[in-house]
Amino acid sequence: MAKGNFILTYDIGTTGNKCTVFDEEGKKVWATVSGYDTIYPQPGWSEQRPEDFWRSVIEATRELIEKYNMDPMNIGVIGLSGHMNGCLPVDGQGQPLFNNIIHSDVRTESECQALSKTFQSNEIYEITGNRIDPHYTLPKILWLKKHYPKIYDDTAYFLNTKDYIAYKLTSNLGITDYSDASLTCIMDIKAREWSEDIAKGVGIDMGKLPQIIKSHDIVGKLSKEAASILGLKEGIPVVAGGGDGACAAKGAGVVREGMAYNYIGSSSWISTPSKTPILDKKARIFNISDLDGIHYNVIGTVQSATISYDWVIDNLGRYEKELAIKNNDSIFEIIQDLAEESSIGSRGVFFVPYMMGERTPHWDADARGGFIGFTLYHNRNDLFRAVYEGVSYALRSVLDALEENQLKVEKLSLIGGGAKSTLWNEIMCNVYDRPLYIHAHPGEATSLGAAIAAGVGVKMFKGYEEAENIIEFSRNLTPQPQAVREYRRYYEVYKMMYPALKPVYEAIARL
Predict the structure, then answer these.
(1) Can you list the alpha helix ranges (DSSP code H) found in 189-342?
(2) Candidates 3.30.420.40, 3.40.50.10860, 3.40.50.880, 3.30.1380.10; correct CATH number of 253-438+480-511?
(3) HSE-up of residue 455 (Cα within 13 Å, Cβ side)
(4) Pairing state of beta strands 242-243 and 75-82?
(5) 243-273 confidence digits (pLDDT tens)
(6) SS3 call for 194
(7) β-bridge mates for residue 242, sequence order
(8) Residue 373: φ, ψ to 5°
(9) Hey, is 366 helix, strand or coil?
């Protein structure tokens, strides 16, 4: 291995920073993880300390060097990824002025209502490719401006997670990439620049918005100070990187139209590439810029995926969980075995996975989860299987919304924790009626996407199209005609449930 041919990536995730080293062929060499906490000051509030992000970078890098005897001279470039939708105000010296208000925070309902009055119906969606929603950056900036005007005044830039780490590594402040910028609800998705109409309309100083560059552009070089702290060599190129959703697309091998990736984690989404933004008449789907800064990823999100599964295990599978701990077995395999004892359609039991409201296609915070159709005839095996199927039906409705907008999905790559469940994968394949390709390393796709962007940035890779050849899949699944026909019948019933239950959800919310 030639010196300087390794790619070091930092993936600043929701629960921790995954620090990974890849070789010039995109193969993982070493990896470490340094965790951090999320702060919940009030119901609906979610914050993280930016100093924890930097601490995690230091700890993970030093562990790589010490645990694997890594030669710092082997690192040729640094790539970045991070969770999106954040709001981290920093002053002119790069000092954080407030905790990072992260993607899951929903404190800004009143700001969203004000935005709906300032702009005409769907006007922001038409400009940004994203609907007004508390998760996004724009209403969070407005919340800070209202409640902490001095912090707003003192802010030099509003950054996202990986942008702050880019500054700590290079001392170059006020830079972001197109993917992160596109999910702030401030960027004009077609013009690929900050929207003056939106910024002026809500009274945001455009000077506080960072410069936007492509994900493979070089932000700067590793500073002498950062190199000394991390134990790396000074001058390593640091590439801008991208938001986790955009990085995952390339890390999943999705480089052409007709392909898509399906992330199955606490929440779940399906993303497919497009040459242009796709503006749905019902605003069910949303758009983010691709890592290349030219193309787009069109996405639909299901709010509660494995988090629904975890809830069912914690509350209906306590006995199995205790048994798994006692025998050092996998609780997930135990639950899967029980679910397999049921049958397609869970013998008529349906699970509606709206445990935290729902996004695509309903965008209804008042929606609620539940089991429907169970009787004294049914058992827990049916309920366990119904959860797998219910999340799969919800994701099929995302596919429907994409295809109603002429985005034909021919096959999907599966990444995230849910990609480890063989039964769930088979159910998805048959519910979607699409071939599924299970990523060989489903937890590494985001880091790998950041590595690919970094490799493109220093000409280690010719272009993003090489990602398709780098990715490895552990297995492929093909829809089974009989199962597809049966699931189609159950899915038609599932689609009837939200319209019928919406008045009930609204009544419950009023309570």
Answers:
(1) 196-202, 224-230, 244-251, 306-316, 318-327, 331-340
(2) 3.30.420.40
(3) 28
(4) parallel
(5) 999 999 999 999 999 999 999 998 999 999 9
(6) strand
(7) 81
(8) 100, 0
(9) coil
* CA–CA separation, 449 and 415 (whole Å): 12
Question: How distant is the alpha carbon of residue 137 from its chain centre?
Answer: 15
Query: Which tokens hold the place of 433?
Result: 């009626």
* Nearest one of 127, 142, 113, 120 to 187, comparing CA atoms: 127
354 pLDDT band, cuts 50/70/90, is very high
* CA angle 107–113–118, rounded 5-degree value: 130
Q: Is the pLDDT of residue 46 over 60?
A: yes
With pLDDT > 90 as the criterion, what percentage of the chain qualifies? 95
**CATH 3.30.420.40 domain extents, the chain:** 6-245, 253-438+480-511
pLDDT of residue 3: 64
- What is the rounded average pLDDT of the residues 216-224? 98
Q: Which CATH superfamily is domain 6-245 in?
A: ATPase, nucleotide binding domain (3.30.420.40)
Q: For residue range 381-401, what is the model confidence (pLDDT) as tens digits?
A: 999 999 999 999 999 999 999
Residue 327 and residue 350: Cα distance in Å, rounded? 31
Q: Contact at 8 Å (CB) between 222 and 235?
A: yes
In whole angstroms, what is the distance from residue 301 CA to residue 318 CA? 29
Cβ proximity of 15 and 2 under 8 Å:
no
* Three-state secondary-structure class, residue 308: helix
Cite the beta strand spans of 348-396 per DSSP E: 350-352, 370-372
What is the model's pLDDT at position 137? 98
10 Å Cβ neighbour count for 113? 12
* 76 has a pLDDT exceeding 50: yes
Tokens read off for 397: 């409705």
Confidence band, pLDDT 50/70/90 cuts, at residue 2: low
Q: Residue 1's pLDDT is what?
A: 45
CB within 8 Å of 178: residues ≥ 6 apart: 187, 192, 212, 213, 214, 215, 242, 289, 290, 293
pTM given for the model = 0.93
